[in-house]
Amino acid sequence: MSTFSLAQLEAAAELVHSVFPGTPQYQWPLLSRRTGCETWVKHENHTPVGAFKIRGGLVYMKDRLDRGENGGVIAATRGNHGQSIATAGARYGIPVTIVVPKGNSREKNAAMQAQGAELIEIGNDFQEAFEQAGKIAEERGLFMLPSMDMKLVEGVASYALELFRAQPDLDTVYVPIGMGSGVCSVIAARDALGLRTKVVGVVSEGAPAYALSFEAGKAIPTERADTFADGVACRSPLPYVVDMIRSGADRVVTVSDAEIEAAIRAYYTDTHNIAEGAGAVPLAALMQEKDKMAGRKVGVILTGGNIDRDVYVDILSRGDE
After folding, report:
1. What is the per-residue burial (b if ≥16 Cβ within 10 Å, else e) of 168-197?
2. pTM over 0.90
3. Are 280 and 260 in contact (CB under 8 A)?
Protein backbone atom coordinates (compact mmCIF):
# COMPACT_ATOMS: atom_id res chain seq x y z
CA MET A 1 0.00 0.00 0.00
CA SER A 2 1.35 3.43 -0.95
CA THR A 3 2.36 5.95 1.70
CA PHE A 4 0.72 8.64 -0.45
CA SER A 5 -2.22 8.62 -2.81
CA LEU A 6 -1.48 9.34 -6.44
CA ALA A 7 -3.61 12.49 -6.12
CA GLN A 8 -1.37 13.76 -3.28
CA LEU A 9 1.79 13.21 -5.29
CA GLU A 10 0.29 14.80 -8.40
CA ALA A 11 -0.72 17.90 -6.43
CA ALA A 12 2.82 18.24 -5.08
CA ALA A 13 4.23 17.74 -8.58
CA GLU A 14 1.95 20.49 -9.89
CA LEU A 15 3.44 22.90 -7.34
CA VAL A 16 6.99 21.87 -8.27
CA HIS A 17 6.24 22.24 -11.99
CA SER A 18 4.92 25.76 -11.42
CA VAL A 19 8.53 26.67 -10.58
CA PHE A 20 10.40 24.56 -13.16
CA PRO A 21 9.20 22.02 -15.74
CA GLY A 22 10.81 18.91 -14.29
CA THR A 23 13.99 17.25 -15.53
CA PRO A 24 14.75 14.89 -18.41
CA GLN A 25 15.59 11.20 -18.35
CA TYR A 26 17.94 10.04 -21.07
CA GLN A 27 19.34 6.73 -22.19
CA TRP A 28 22.98 7.33 -23.10
CA PRO A 29 24.43 4.72 -25.52
CA LEU A 30 27.99 4.88 -24.18
CA LEU A 31 26.79 4.54 -20.61
CA SER A 32 24.57 1.60 -21.54
CA ARG A 33 27.52 -0.05 -23.26
CA ARG A 34 29.58 0.44 -20.10
CA THR A 35 26.92 -1.01 -17.77
CA GLY A 36 25.79 -3.81 -20.08
CA CYS A 37 22.14 -2.85 -19.73
CA GLU A 38 19.67 -0.24 -21.00
CA THR A 39 20.52 2.54 -18.58
CA TRP A 40 18.23 5.55 -18.08
CA VAL A 41 19.63 8.54 -16.18
CA LYS A 42 17.22 10.81 -14.29
CA HIS A 43 18.94 14.18 -14.52
CA GLU A 44 18.28 15.91 -11.20
CA ASN A 45 21.51 17.78 -11.82
CA HIS A 46 19.38 19.92 -14.18
CA THR A 47 17.10 21.53 -11.55
CA PRO A 48 17.41 25.27 -10.71
CA VAL A 49 19.71 24.42 -7.77
CA GLY A 50 21.55 21.56 -9.47
CA ALA A 51 20.01 18.87 -7.25
CA PHE A 52 16.74 17.08 -6.49
CA LYS A 53 16.22 18.63 -3.07
CA ILE A 54 14.51 21.76 -4.39
CA ARG A 55 11.38 19.70 -5.01
CA GLY A 56 10.89 18.85 -1.36
CA GLY A 57 11.83 22.33 -0.16
CA LEU A 58 9.22 24.00 -2.35
CA VAL A 59 6.42 21.74 -1.12
CA TYR A 60 7.48 21.84 2.53
CA MET A 61 7.87 25.63 2.70
CA LYS A 62 4.64 26.31 0.77
CA ASP A 63 2.82 24.09 3.24
CA ARG A 64 4.21 26.16 6.13
CA LEU A 65 3.13 29.36 4.42
CA ASP A 66 -0.37 28.00 3.76
CA ARG A 67 -0.69 27.19 7.47
CA GLY A 68 0.29 30.76 8.38
CA GLU A 69 3.72 29.74 9.68
CA ASN A 70 5.93 32.32 8.00
CA GLY A 71 8.47 32.85 10.79
CA GLY A 72 12.16 32.17 10.35
CA VAL A 73 13.46 28.63 9.94
CA ILE A 74 16.84 27.02 10.49
CA ALA A 75 18.21 23.84 8.93
CA ALA A 76 21.41 21.81 9.03
CA THR A 77 22.83 20.58 5.74
CA ARG A 78 25.89 19.68 3.72
CA GLY A 79 24.52 21.81 0.89
CA ASN A 80 21.68 20.64 -1.34
CA HIS A 81 18.98 20.58 1.34
CA GLY A 82 20.12 24.06 2.35
CA GLN A 83 19.94 25.32 -1.23
CA SER A 84 16.43 23.92 -1.48
CA ILE A 85 15.21 25.62 1.69
CA ALA A 86 16.99 28.89 0.90
CA THR A 87 15.45 29.05 -2.57
CA ALA A 88 11.97 28.18 -1.31
CA GLY A 89 12.31 30.64 1.58
CA ALA A 90 13.21 33.46 -0.80
CA ARG A 91 10.25 32.55 -3.02
CA TYR A 92 7.74 32.50 -0.15
CA GLY A 93 9.19 35.29 1.99
CA ILE A 94 10.37 33.08 4.85
CA PRO A 95 13.76 33.95 6.45
CA VAL A 96 16.22 31.04 6.34
CA THR A 97 19.31 30.29 8.43
CA ILE A 98 21.52 27.41 7.32
CA VAL A 99 24.06 25.59 9.52
CA VAL A 100 26.87 23.65 7.83
CA PRO A 101 29.86 21.80 9.32
CA LYS A 102 33.35 23.27 9.18
CA GLY A 103 35.13 22.59 5.90
CA ASN A 104 31.87 22.28 3.98
CA SER A 105 31.82 22.74 0.21
CA ARG A 106 32.83 26.32 -0.54
CA GLU A 107 30.73 26.43 -3.67
CA LYS A 108 27.62 25.06 -1.99
CA ASN A 109 28.09 27.58 0.82
CA ALA A 110 28.34 30.42 -1.70
CA ALA A 111 25.22 29.20 -3.50
CA MET A 112 23.17 29.10 -0.29
CA GLN A 113 24.21 32.64 0.58
CA ALA A 114 23.38 33.82 -2.95
CA GLN A 115 19.97 32.20 -2.56
CA GLY A 116 19.33 34.40 0.47
CA ALA A 117 20.26 32.28 3.48
CA GLU A 118 22.27 33.35 6.50
CA LEU A 119 25.09 30.81 6.75
CA ILE A 120 26.63 29.54 10.01
CA GLU A 121 29.62 27.15 9.89
CA ILE A 122 29.95 25.03 13.04
CA GLY A 123 30.66 21.41 14.02
CA ASN A 124 32.93 18.77 12.51
CA ASP A 125 30.33 16.82 10.56
CA PHE A 126 26.64 16.93 9.66
CA GLN A 127 25.47 15.41 12.94
CA GLU A 128 27.33 18.00 15.00
CA ALA A 129 26.02 20.80 12.75
CA PHE A 130 22.50 19.43 13.21
CA GLU A 131 22.86 19.42 17.00
CA GLN A 132 24.21 22.98 17.00
CA ALA A 133 21.37 24.12 14.74
CA GLY A 134 18.91 22.89 17.37
CA LYS A 135 20.60 25.03 20.01
CA ILE A 136 20.60 28.09 17.75
CA ALA A 137 16.91 27.52 17.01
CA GLU A 138 16.12 27.72 20.73
CA GLU A 139 18.27 30.81 21.23
CA ARG A 140 16.75 32.72 18.30
CA GLY A 141 13.21 31.40 18.36
CA LEU A 142 13.52 29.78 14.94
CA PHE A 143 11.69 26.71 13.67
CA MET A 144 14.10 23.78 13.38
CA LEU A 145 13.44 22.33 9.95
CA PRO A 146 14.12 18.58 9.69
CA SER A 147 16.46 17.01 7.16
CA MET A 148 13.86 14.34 6.50
CA ASP A 149 10.09 14.71 6.64
CA MET A 150 7.18 13.14 4.79
CA LYS A 151 6.25 16.53 3.35
CA LEU A 152 9.73 16.67 1.81
CA VAL A 153 9.19 13.17 0.42
CA GLU A 154 5.90 14.31 -1.09
CA GLY A 155 7.69 16.96 -3.12
CA VAL A 156 10.74 14.88 -4.03
CA ALA A 157 8.45 12.15 -5.37
CA SER A 158 7.72 14.42 -8.34
CA TYR A 159 10.99 13.31 -9.96
CA ALA A 160 10.02 9.68 -9.53
CA LEU A 161 6.61 10.33 -11.11
CA GLU A 162 8.36 11.93 -14.09
CA LEU A 163 10.73 9.00 -14.48
CA PHE A 164 8.14 6.25 -14.06
CA ARG A 165 5.66 7.89 -16.41
CA ALA A 166 8.34 8.30 -19.05
CA GLN A 167 9.71 4.76 -18.56
CA PRO A 168 7.12 2.65 -16.71
CA ASP A 169 8.78 -0.66 -17.56
CA LEU A 170 12.03 -0.15 -15.67
CA ASP A 171 13.20 -3.35 -14.02
CA THR A 172 15.20 -1.59 -11.29
CA VAL A 173 15.99 1.94 -10.09
CA TYR A 174 19.13 2.74 -8.06
CA VAL A 175 18.78 5.61 -5.56
CA PRO A 176 21.33 7.06 -3.10
CA ILE A 177 20.43 7.13 0.59
CA GLY A 178 21.39 10.18 2.64
CA MET A 179 18.70 10.92 5.22
CA GLY A 180 16.19 9.04 3.06
CA SER A 181 13.87 11.45 1.21
CA GLY A 182 15.03 10.27 -2.22
CA VAL A 183 14.67 6.54 -1.73
CA CYS A 184 11.37 6.92 0.14
CA SER A 185 9.99 9.12 -2.63
CA VAL A 186 10.85 6.56 -5.31
CA ILE A 187 9.17 3.81 -3.28
CA ALA A 188 6.10 6.02 -2.72
CA ALA A 189 5.73 6.96 -6.40
CA ARG A 190 6.24 3.39 -7.58
CA ASP A 191 3.58 2.12 -5.19
CA ALA A 192 1.13 4.92 -6.02
CA LEU A 193 1.45 4.07 -9.70
CA GLY A 194 1.11 0.34 -9.03
CA LEU A 195 4.40 -0.57 -10.73
CA ARG A 196 6.61 -3.57 -10.00
CA THR A 197 9.99 -1.83 -10.43
CA LYS A 198 12.57 -2.90 -7.86
CA VAL A 199 14.16 -0.09 -5.82
CA VAL A 200 17.79 -0.42 -4.73
CA GLY A 201 19.17 1.97 -2.13
CA VAL A 202 22.88 2.81 -2.23
CA VAL A 203 25.22 4.02 0.52
CA SER A 204 28.94 4.67 0.86
CA GLU A 205 30.98 2.04 2.67
CA GLY A 206 32.35 4.91 4.78
CA ALA A 207 28.81 5.81 5.87
CA PRO A 208 27.03 2.45 6.09
CA ALA A 209 24.35 3.31 8.67
CA TYR A 210 21.36 2.58 6.45
CA ALA A 211 22.92 -0.59 5.03
CA LEU A 212 23.55 -1.86 8.56
CA SER A 213 20.03 -0.82 9.56
CA PHE A 214 18.46 -2.54 6.55
CA GLU A 215 20.21 -5.76 7.46
CA ALA A 216 19.45 -5.54 11.18
CA GLY A 217 15.82 -4.48 10.80
CA LYS A 218 16.27 -1.46 13.06
CA ALA A 219 18.11 1.86 13.06
CA ILE A 220 21.85 1.32 13.65
CA PRO A 221 23.81 4.58 14.12
CA THR A 222 27.54 4.73 13.43
CA GLU A 223 30.27 6.76 15.09
CA ARG A 224 31.57 8.24 11.84
CA ALA A 225 30.59 8.94 8.25
CA ASP A 226 33.79 9.02 6.23
CA THR A 227 33.17 9.72 2.55
CA PHE A 228 33.76 12.62 0.18
CA ALA A 229 30.17 12.04 -1.06
CA ASP A 230 28.70 14.45 1.47
CA GLY A 231 25.11 13.88 0.37
CA VAL A 232 25.21 10.32 1.73
CA ALA A 233 27.36 11.03 4.81
CA CYS A 234 24.72 9.94 7.32
CA ARG A 235 25.53 8.29 10.64
CA SER A 236 22.15 8.58 12.44
CA PRO A 237 19.41 6.78 10.48
CA LEU A 238 15.76 7.45 11.29
CA PRO A 239 13.72 4.43 12.45
CA TYR A 240 10.67 5.20 10.31
CA VAL A 241 12.87 5.63 7.24
CA VAL A 242 14.50 2.27 7.95
CA ASP A 243 11.01 0.77 8.09
CA MET A 244 10.02 2.34 4.76
CA ILE A 245 13.19 1.13 3.05
CA ARG A 246 12.84 -2.37 4.45
CA SER A 247 9.22 -2.57 3.33
CA GLY A 248 9.75 -1.10 -0.13
CA ALA A 249 13.33 -1.63 -1.30
CA ASP A 250 14.76 -4.80 -2.78
CA ARG A 251 18.19 -4.34 -1.21
CA VAL A 252 20.79 -1.78 -0.11
CA VAL A 253 24.16 -1.79 -1.89
CA THR A 254 27.40 -0.40 -0.48
CA VAL A 255 30.00 1.28 -2.71
CA SER A 256 33.53 2.55 -2.04
CA ASP A 257 34.77 6.09 -2.62
CA ALA A 258 36.94 4.71 -5.42
CA GLU A 259 33.85 3.28 -7.12
CA ILE A 260 32.04 6.60 -6.70
CA GLU A 261 34.96 8.44 -8.29
CA ALA A 262 34.95 5.98 -11.20
CA ALA A 263 31.24 6.67 -11.70
CA ILE A 264 31.88 10.43 -11.72
CA ARG A 265 34.44 9.91 -14.47
CA ALA A 266 32.05 7.63 -16.35
CA TYR A 267 29.34 10.30 -16.28
CA TYR A 268 31.74 12.83 -17.75
CA THR A 269 33.16 10.48 -20.39
CA ASP A 270 29.88 8.92 -21.49
CA THR A 271 27.41 11.81 -21.07
CA HIS A 272 29.47 14.96 -20.42
CA ASN A 273 27.42 15.60 -17.29
CA ILE A 274 28.85 16.68 -13.95
CA ALA A 275 27.94 14.46 -11.00
CA GLU A 276 28.70 15.18 -7.37
CA GLY A 277 29.65 12.29 -5.11
CA ALA A 278 26.15 11.38 -3.95
CA GLY A 279 24.84 11.89 -7.48
CA ALA A 280 27.25 9.24 -8.80
CA VAL A 281 26.50 6.68 -6.06
CA PRO A 282 23.66 4.95 -7.98
CA LEU A 283 25.78 4.51 -11.10
CA ALA A 284 28.64 3.20 -8.96
CA ALA A 285 26.29 0.52 -7.62
CA LEU A 286 25.04 -0.40 -11.09
CA MET A 287 28.63 -0.70 -12.33
CA GLN A 288 29.38 -2.92 -9.33
CA GLU A 289 26.35 -5.10 -10.15
CA LYS A 290 26.93 -5.09 -13.90
CA ASP A 291 26.76 -8.87 -14.26
CA LYS A 292 23.62 -9.10 -12.12
CA MET A 293 21.80 -6.47 -14.21
CA ALA A 294 22.99 -7.53 -17.67
CA GLY A 295 20.40 -6.95 -20.38
CA ARG A 296 17.81 -5.33 -18.10
CA LYS A 297 16.25 -1.87 -18.27
CA VAL A 298 17.56 0.14 -15.34
CA GLY A 299 17.22 3.66 -13.97
CA VAL A 300 19.85 5.59 -12.01
CA ILE A 301 19.11 8.85 -10.23
CA LEU A 302 21.78 11.46 -10.83
CA THR A 303 20.67 13.40 -7.78
CA GLY A 304 22.97 16.40 -8.17
CA GLY A 305 25.97 17.97 -9.82
CA ASN A 306 27.15 20.34 -7.08
CA ILE A 307 30.77 19.38 -6.67
CA ASP A 308 33.60 21.83 -5.97
CA ARG A 309 35.78 22.47 -9.00
CA ASP A 310 39.07 21.47 -7.38
CA VAL A 311 37.58 18.17 -6.16
CA TYR A 312 36.11 17.45 -9.58
CA VAL A 313 39.31 18.23 -11.45
CA ASP A 314 41.27 15.98 -9.09
CA ILE A 315 38.84 13.07 -9.64
CA LEU A 316 38.90 13.49 -13.42
CA SER A 317 42.68 13.51 -13.42
CA ARG A 318 42.84 10.03 -11.87
CA GLY A 319 42.07 6.77 -13.60
CA ASP A 320 41.18 6.10 -17.22
CA GLU A 321 37.44 5.87 -17.67
Report:
1. eebebbbbbbbbbbbbbbbbbbbbbbeeeb
2. yes
3. yes
